[in-house]
## 1
Amino acid sequence: MKFATSPETVLERLTALRAHDAPTHGGHVLSYVYDSGEPELDRLAGEAIRAMQPVNGLDPTTFGSVAALERDLVGFTRDLLGGDDEVVGTVTSGGTESCLLAVKTARDAWLAAHGLRPGEARPRLVLPTTAHAAFRKAAHYFGLETDLVPVTATGEVTAAAVAERVSGPAAHDVALVVVSAPSYPHAALDPVADVAAVAADAGVPVHVDACIGGMALPFWPDLPDWDLRVPGVTSLSVDLHKYGYAPKGVSVLLQRGRDRQRGQYFATTRWPGYPVVNPTLLGSRSGGPLAAAWAIVQALGHEGFAELAGRSRRATDALRDAVGAVEGLRVVGDPVGPLLAVATDDAVPAERRVDPHRWADAATAHGWVLQAQPAYSQEDGTRLPHTTHLTVTPVTESVLGELVPALEAAADAVRGEPRPDATALLAALPAAGAPADGVPGADPGTLDAETAAGLLGALGLDASRLGDDGPGVGPMAPLLAAVEALPAPMAERLLTELLARLVEPRRP
């Protein structure tokens, strides 16, 4: 066969494109990637993917290996997370899909219990403000109302706050309560047992989002019960492409009760093609990530995961101590698991404070990628501070000697610098119609793509020039300051335009 471009040239081009990415190994990126620090696991995962590359997970009656691998993964995670024989599960494409399916299952069960069809009512999804955004996405897709419960200054929801939303007549329209183990923004472990008890009294199911913590917290010492051992927990999600060290994307959704889990499925024989029976949102599914996760679980076993979790725990403790000792910064709350969030220490004089977003940008200049998170105003009037997030992996322990001095130097470089002036940034935006809450810009629902691109340009963001010369969009502190200052719908519209234009075809 004659190729338009030789396979060798194609791979050279791919390698050149990858050269601009942030490094996925070596511990320099403290978000998005989960590096075990064990090259042999990467090799094993790659070989497993290659072995399953042509397999279609759509039909396990044709490809029995899919059923066997999934069965083993569900069994391993169920045993690790305190499930009994009543617990069954499904391998999904990632944490978002696991969360979507948990919400869809709960919505359908609630509708059935009330003799309703989708669209005839909008049940409530009760969740802390710190619950992963995937649950808001699920509510948007499946027609539920999100009932956001404010959290404490340290990031945890309280059972009393949840009780106000589900007790007495208020329980009637609640389809599901969500808690996190831990939450992504601040690594706060919600009081799962207390919330589950409140919800059980009201007859409301509870989902534990353990997507980030599920493969690490079983090896964390001195934790209260938070998993399927807790009465009242009806489902739990855990990602194997995080602290299971598998390539993306592979997650597991565990559900208590076969009948409940069967409601997760979509099945139809009402078309002239083959009978369609899907346990997940996807139809055709790659067998590659499934096989990679299975191979890693087989290779590591319980003891291997415990050893890697130990490395992450020691590194997390060391980073927590090191960051806590940096003048002008503070670790938020009492983080649980291999992650933490860092905020400005307002207890020191202004000239000695360190803005966490400027700190993250300075760390990038030193070769380390941290994740900036905006502030968030809760409905009760309290405000969660803007922070920088660090995800800690086993490989982090081996680079602490480089990382800690770099974080200290980054703080020294920006100490005393105030946040970017969002007022000045927003004043530079050209008016695009009627102001929204006094901020220039039109109703985001009617903002066309060209106008949105112009507003991005006024903020110094030209999507047509991003992505070719390196990762990221430049310093994050100015962008996050603008995101916080804009009304949320406008910020979301502009970020949508930015991301959409990044992948639009370009003419030479």
## 2
Amino acid sequence: MGSRQGALDRAASFFDEGHFKGLLTDLVAYPSTSQEPGAETALTEYLEQGIAPWAQRLGFITTIHPNPLPGFGPILTGIRVEDPTLKTVVLYGHGDTVRGLEDQWRAGLKPWALTEEGDRWYGRGTADNKGQHALNMAALEAVIAERGGKLGFNVKLVIETAEERGSKGLKEFVAENAELLAADVLIASDGPRVEPAMPTIATGTRGTFHFDLMVKFRDGGVHSGHWGGLTRDPAVILAHAIASMMDRNGRVLVRGILPPSLPNSVRTVLDGCPVGGGADAATIDAGWGEPGLSSAEKIYGWNSLIVLAMVSGRPENPVNAVAPNARAHCQIRYTVDSDPAGFTAAIRAHLDAAGFPEVAVENSFVRMPASRTDPDHPWVRWAQASMQKTLGKPVQIIPNSSGGLPGDVFIDHLGVPLVWVPHSYNGCKQHGPDEHLLVAPAREGLLAFAGMWWDLGEKPVS
């Protein structure tokens, strides 16, 4: 019959003997970026060659579906049903990555080759998200082997390849295949822990809202000697407009883009929650952001405004001219407690009231909607108890992770609660050069999931 400890031992051996590292090395080798033209073949190959054969060995019936939206990567489903009366889990991941940025990685590292240095495995996708969904599948393999080919529950695997482009097509795909993917819960992994050594469960994610601020006064630049000091400079106007939206300490002054308050349930679950990124992460500036909130409340329970890019003229080749225009691309990371449908109007009203009618608000859109399951949901607390039993240490619950994921898709069309269990950390450099996965949290993640998969077959949530 096997045992829980036997499953954990199998998972530990798979990791400690180098088998998981070898598996991840093969997966990282696919240059499956969804953000660069010419990589479409690699996206398909990742699913066809990297995931499908492995899933089939584990008893899944796999299908690779074209994306419902033209120009976006395919989606793999794997269905493993032992008994329709048993509990069913949706296991999600994404095989696409951001750009490789090969010329920006430091000497000795390459994006499409796994390189081990100390306690780190470097390579594009090690943290986001190949390493994370591979750990969860490896844990399934350990439990299947320990139970003699059985799990004691059903699994429906969804691996997409357009997450780094906003999961385009996933919503339409899940809506069209809601019966095929019907389940009781989503248990999956992406994003960072609150601290490298603190196992974490997130019950949702913040959404991402994008918009441009544009100032345009003329069709071309005019001589800075003749016109400097006489005609309006769009860069100066734009800088003052942005300053009116956020003070020098990061407090958002456009109050219409913020939640009305921090819900008590969020405040309670975040009480004492640590926040840390590790040695390579950015600093946590205590005085930056919304006054009166802890660091955890700022990124897990509140909204933030960020200027992602800003340009006027040609900084790489400046000329002696007053530029004709200036543009900033901005982002709001928001929780489910605020409505993005009102963001554009709130920004417009603020700029008008602040005396900036010439600053246009353009190209507003939601890239990924926010999502959240109640942190006290029975599935969330079940997962926490299982992980704590396996790891022998506290597991922090957060109401939503700081980044964006397509959890709303699964809530809206499958009606499932969300249990995100991240295996990475805030300093992993997942969207830049030198992306890496920390070895110790990865090993813990494999064990935690082996324990959860075992427990799900023994005593699932009723």
